[in-house]
Amino acid sequence: MLIKKPARSDLSEAQTTSESAYVSRRSVIKGLAASGVLASAGVGEKAMGLDLFGGKDEAKQAPLKPLEFTPQKPVPDLVLTPEDKVGNYNNFYEFGTGKTDPAKNSQGLRTEPWTIEVGGEVEKPATVDVWQLMNEIGLEERIYRMRCVEAWSMVIPWVGFELGKFLKRFQPTSRAKYVAFQTLYDPEQMPGQRNRYIGGGVDYPYVEGLRMDEAMHPLTILSVGLYGKTLPPQNGAPIRLVVPWKYGFKGIKSIVKIKLVEQMPPTSWNKMLPQEYGFYANVNPEVDHPRWSQASERFIGPGGLFAVKREPTLPFNGYGEEVASLYRNMDLRKFY
Ligand code: MTE
C-alpha cells in the first residue's frame, strides 16, 4: 500500500483543539438541545472526508445518548482521531472482517437491556444492569492511544470507569489470579457467528483475559462511551474493555460475562493462531509479528487518506512508565 507523508498542516493545532473542545462541551453543557449539538457535529464529520473510509453506503447510525462524565485535562502530545474514523474503521468480526463492515452491519444490535454476569473467584457474584451502572458509578473521560496489532493506531477519547474499582465490588478471593471476559453470543444478531466466512473463522463467543494485576491497574477501564456519547455498536456497545498498553485485540467488545479464575483463561486470537498472538499482547516495537514489523504504525488522524502518518511505535504504547514494572523479570519475547 502506498503511504504518502502528510503535510504538517494536516495535523494542525487548530484541528486538535476543536475536537477536544467538542468533547468537553458535551460534558458540561447539560440540557442543551441535543439535536443542535448533533447537527453541528454532523457537519464536521462530512467535512472530514469520511468517504475515504468507505462510509458511502453506511447503514443508518443507531441513536447514541449523551453521557455525563468528568472530562480529562487536555493531553498536549495527543491528536485525536476524528469521531467518524473511530466509528468507520473497525475490527468486530462478529459483524464481518472488512473495516467498514461493523459500522454497516451492527446498527441493529439490541443493547438495552444489557447485563454482565460477574462470578468465579469472588465472594459476591452478581448480575449487573449496565445501564443502571452507567448512572451510578461515576464516569470519567480517558484519552488513550490505541494500537492495533495490524500496525495502525488512533487516539480515542473514551468514557468509562476503572475495571479495578468495579471488580472490588464483588470481593475477589485470594485464588483470583486472572480475569476472563466474554462477548455476547447471539448468532441471530451477529452474522459472523452464523457463518464462518463472514466471521473470519473465529471460534465464538469472542473471549479475552487479563492477569489480575493488569485488570486492577488504574489505566485499565471498561468503556461505555466515546466522544461524550454512548458507544456506537461497532465500537462494542454498550460496554467494552480498554487496556491502552496492549494491542487492540485485547479490548473485547459487547461484554456479557466476567469471571475471576485461578488459571490463565483461553483468548480468541491466541486459540486461533498461538504463534502470532500471545496472551500478553503488550505493544512492543522490538517484537515483530511473524508476518510484519511492529517498529512503526500508521496513525489515523485528522485529514484525508494521505494524511495517515507513519510514526515509531512506543514500548507499551507510550505507557511504559506506568506499567513496565508489571512485567519485571519477564522475557517479553517469550511472553508476547
Ligand atoms: N471484540 C470482539 N468481540 N470481536 C472482535 O472482532 N476485535 C478486536 C477488539 N475487540 C474484536 C473485539 C480488535 S482486533 C481490535 S483492533 C479492537 O477491538 C478494535 O476496536 P475498535 O473497532 O473500537 O477500534
Automatic annotation (TrEMBL):
Keywords: Metal-binding, Molybdenum, Oxidoreductase, Signal. GO terms for molecular function: metal ion binding; molybdopterin cofactor binding; oxidoreductase activity, acting on a sulfur group of donors, quinone or similar compound as acceptor. One of its GO terms (biological process) is protein repair. Heterodimer of a catalytic subunit (MsrP) and a heme-binding subunit (MsrQ). Residues 110-269 form the Oxidoreductase molybdopterin-binding domain. NCBIfam families: PRK05363.1. Part of the MsrPQ system that repairs oxidized periplasmic proteins containing methionine sulfoxide residues (Met-O), using respiratory chain electrons. Thus protects these proteins from oxidative-stress damage caused by reactive species of oxygen and chlorine generated by the host defense mechanisms. MsrPQ is essential for the maintenance of envelope integrity under bleach stress, rescuing a wide series of structurally unrelated periplasmic proteins from methionine oxidation. It holds the Pfam family Oxidored_molyb. The gene is msrP. Mo-molybdopterin binds at residues 90, 93-94, 148, 183, 235, 240, 251-253. HAMAP family: MsrP. Its EC number is 1.8.5.-. Its cofactor is Mo-molybdopterin. It comes from Microbulbifer agarilyticus. It is an enzyme of class 1 (oxidoreductase). Transmembrane segments: none annotated. Binds 1 Mo-molybdopterin (Mo-MPT) cofactor per subunit. This is Protein-methionine-sulfoxide reductase catalytic subunit MsrP. The keyword Kinase does not apply. It comes from the Bacteria. Belongs to the MsrP family. The keyword Oxidoreductase applies. It catalyses: L-methionyl-[protein] + a quinone + H2O = L-methionyl-(R)-S-oxide-[protein] + a quinol; L-methionyl-[protein] + a quinone + H2O = L-methionyl-(S)-S-oxide-[protein] + a quinol. InterPro entries: MsrP (IPR022867), OxRdtase_Mopterin-bd_dom (IPR000572), OxRdtase_Mopterin-bd_sf (IPR036374).
